[in-house]
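**Entry details**
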Amino acid sequence: MVLIDGKKTSEILQSEIAEEVIKIKNNGGKIPHLAAVLVGHDGGSETYVAGKVKACERVGFKSTLIRYEDNVTEAELLNCVAQLNSDEDVDGFIVQLPLPNHISEYKVIESINPGKDVDGFHAVNVGRMVAGMPAFISATPFGIMELIKRYKIETSGKNCVVIGRSNIVGRPMSILLSQKGVDCTVTLCHSRTKNLKAICAQADIIVAGLGIAEFLRGDMVKDGAVVIDVGITRVKSDKTKSGWKLIGDVKFDEVAPKCSFITPVPGGVGPMTIASLLYNTLLSSKKEIYK
């Protein structure tokens, strides 16, 4: 069983990005600039955005953090997006989700210039991905595909089960895994799928992103399977200093002994998300997606 080290892979990818930035500087080019818009004080969002700012510093990017209180109006936030769209120095930006209930996430996402949508959430980028065209791929699916590639996991002709149909993970994963060059045969499952246990037991590769802690058990996985755990649930623990621990959608102790490859939680898919965002920003600054 090989434990897929997302933290190490993320560090390698970020070092590659940093080397590219040095080349850009030496050639007198424009330094990539990533901006983030944060509304309110959600703990998870604060941590994630702070991680993005630090990551920009590590790789040599410029970064801008724009903050609003929870009571910001939708019109004010849309005006901020419009300003970032027109700012020629900003190569890519993200509006951190979730947003307060009085603001339409759909309106905000669709107001972002697809050429600066480094989160890969805009319908234009999703559509381009479906068509097999160059696109900004959302961070988690991109990170998973990068782990599969760098660990040289065989995909051609393999049966893959994706559990979860979210627009951010499940649906794009099913498309990316079925594309030419990857060539998996993909089954997309969800909470209403019948005979899910039997379907999973036939899979060569399982991507678990249902959002239910320890949902995937040992008797649902065949010997030699590859298991990618996307889930993150915080539970109380008397064995950690914080009093909490993170667990995934996979019952790790049961599933891991049967696997050829498996991602842990934490330290698997999670660390790849910020590296993926940086990579998209680099592509944007070089005009490699939208010429």
